[in-house]
Amino acid sequence: MAVDDDRKSPAFPKLKKAEAESRALVRLALKGALATVHNATGHPYASLVLTATEPDGTPVFLISRLALHTQNLQNDTRATMLVDGTGDAEDPMAGARVTLIGDARPTQSVTARARFVARHPAAEGYADFADFAFYALHPERAHFIGGFGRIVDLDATGVLLPMDGAGALVAAEPEIVSHMNIDHADAIHLYATKLLSAGVGAWRMTGIDPEGCDLVSGARALRLPFGSRITTAAEARRELARLAAAARSNKLKA
Fold first, then answer.
1. 3-159 has which fold?
2. Packing angle, helices 233-248 and 167-183, rounded to 10
3. How far is CA 76 from CA 39, 134, 196, in A?
4. Which of 91, 102, 197, 253 is deepest in the core (most CB within 10 A)?
């Protein structure tokens, strides 16, 4: 079926909504349930890991070679990660969650460490220990559940963000994030409280990508979407200024 025909399909809006919600869930997650193949028995083995994301949304985590899940991955890279977005909902089964299915391997990404530590500052103390390493889960597909009756299978293109032409933004990310946290902490606080209806907190920016930026305060995480795709530092400055102005007027304009 041609792309144009796909877009005319009644299922297309449902698919695009599920993709957007899945990406948002992964971006918001501070932790996930990582399932690996037990190297002795072949059973699924689930464990809790702290998570962050690469600019394209690829989940990354920092694990010790002494941990059983690391030993499992050294024998078999197949893994899944459940990201639970149900929070403290009274009926968790009515909430959203997504399971990413793929391979987890050590990563030499130049952005993994900074993005992970920005999200989990306590990891700064052990991120460079010899027995710890950053891993990335490379999703091949995903299973999204948005509540009762909302079940959608996705492929990798649906859960990862295309980064075509965004190299300049990725290169400028450390400077942008540092500048916002040091010089525009007031704007970040307004993003959280006025645009995203979050409570008062020590909100800080931890990452930026073409679709939006990530904010964290302690164990709380937020995702601030942009009005349009950005790929350069100049575009980021304009969009962040626009959002700050909208927050100050307490009205987000399209």
1. Pnp Oxidase; Chain A (2.30.110)
2. 40
3. 8, 17, 41
4. 102
Could you report the per-residue pLDDT of 205-219, keeping only the tens digit for each?
Answer: 999 999 999 999 999
Confidence of residue 251 (pLDDT cuts 50, 70, 90): low
CA distances to 28, 55, 158, 218 from 161, in Å? 15, 8, 8, 26
Which regions of the chain carry the CATH code 2.30.110.10? Answer: 3-159
142/159 Cα distance (integer angstroms): 7
Residues of the chain with CATH 3.20.180.10: 167-248
Classify domain 167-248 by CATH architecture: Alpha-Beta Barrel (3.20)
pLDDT per residue as tens digits for the range 116-168: 999 999 999 999 999 999 999 999 999 999 988 889 999 998 999 999 999 99
Secondary structure class of 99 (helix, strand, coil)? strand
Longest CA–CA separation in the chain, Å:
59
Helix (H) or strand (E) holding 246: helix 233-248
Q: How many CA atoms lie within 13 A of 207 on its CB side?
A: 26
Whole-angstrom Cα distance, residue 55 to residue 68? 28
